[in-house]
Specification:
The structure is a homodimer. The first copy, chain A, folds into two domains: 51 residues, Arc Repressor Mutant, subunit A; 139 residues, Tetracycline Repressor, domain 2 (Orthogonal Bundle). Chain A has nine helices and no strands. The first copy, chain A, is elongated. Helix content of chain A is 74%, strand content 0%. By secondary structure, the first copy, chain A, is an all-alpha fold. The first copy, chain A, starts with 6 loop residues before the first helix and ends in a 5-residue tail after the last helix. Chains A and B meet through α6, α7, α8 and α9 of A and α6, α7, α8 and α9 of B. Chains A, B: It comes from Modestobacter italicus (strain DSM 44449 / CECT 9708 / BC 501). Chains A, B: This is Transcriptional regulator, TetR family. Chains A, B: Pfam families: TetR_C_6 (PF13977), TetR_N (PF00440). Chains A, B: One of its GO terms (molecular function) is DNA-binding transcription factor activity.
């Protein structure tokens, strides 16, 4: 073995194994032993990079979170120069629906982490911070669409944003854990976007 | 020890310990050893009633599910003789919001099971069956409210029902795992019920 081990590469190898275990068997199955077997390295090697179960959880969630963010940025970049509020909000929320296998793997990790956060306050606070930011951005979009007359008024923008965001998460949850079809999820979200923000431009 | 052990009482004692472990530490922590320690009995005794981890999972979920159903029945019974569609749907969906400690404990078990079902097809099919039934009931209520003019038309009742149900589940998820306030969750759900089914009767 060469003296200069490529730390970055080794860490990525272990991280990828960790994500495969989490995505296929849930975070409950993420253990030193399982991850080491999946990565084809020793338990000691895994422990060197991820000393505790919590540090593994944390890594898995940040990793899935970073991919959600990248997908949202890609979705926005694909909209062109001056997207409408309807297009912007729709593109962001569609990212929350686990439509293909990669997205489903990340959604499983996110769901396992949400379940973990439900019993651990500090993790819930982390999730809450990111959620509040997205909710406030959505509320701004709804408020702006209402002010131009594109969206129907009479609905509190923050309540509408809270509900719309929760609907997208709930649809994702049901696709993943209760066999809701992705077509039904997309149709339900689209119908709600029409109601909250007006129909899409033709 | 008397020869005639009270099996029912012992089973309930172990089941209650199992639910306490699941609610406070998540289903991942539900093990023979943990449950036995919590119940103050031997691991062998726990194994007698729940031979496998899957049988524990199954019991915990059925138990939480039965309490959801009882709460929904109570909520409907509290509505009087001829509730409007708005009242009926509202009462059913509010049960999905974890508003007090007992409901939060059950919601943690439900969430842990959803996460488990996301990696296990048979569990997802179980959840899916119950969900489809509720969704179809909600769609009937929306359709009926639209036909009497109480609710605005122009929205597909099944899409609206799918979205509304997912919104309630998503709000519950965010209350539990991301620190969304119960007030914000109730306000968002109420606003959506007004939109889908018309304002409540005065």
């Amino acid at each position: 073995m060469p003296k200069q081990v490529d730390h970055h590469e080794r860490r990525e190898q272990i991280a990828a194994a960790l994500m495969r275990v989490a995505a296929t068997q849930g975070l409950a199955a993420v253990s030193l032993r399982h991850v080491a077997a999946e990565a084809g390295v020793t338990s000691g090697m895994v422990q060197h990079y991820f000393p505790t179960k919590d540090s593994m959880m944390d890594f898995a969630m940040r990793s899935a979170g970073a991919r959600y963010e990248a997908r949202m940025n890609d979705a926005i970049a694909g909209l062109g120069e001056r997207p409408s509020a309807r297009e912007l909000v729709g593109a962001l929320l569609m990212v929350l629906l686990p439509l293909d296998e990669t997205q489903q793997a990340d959604a499983r990790v996110a769901l396992a982490f949400q379940s973990y956060a439900a019993t651990k306050l500090s993790a819930a606070e982390d999730l809450g911070g990111g959620n509040a930011e997205l909710r406030s951005f959505l509320a701004d979009q709804i408020r702006s669409a209402q002010s131009t007359g594109a969206a129907p008024g009479g609905v509190d923008p923050l309540h509408a944003a809270t509900g719309l965001f929760a609907m997208a998460e709930g649809l994702g949850l049901q696709v993943l854990s209760a066999g809701l079809s992705t077509d039904a999820a997309i149709a339900a979200l689209d119908a709600q976007l029409d109601i909250t923000l007006g129909p899409p431009p033709r």
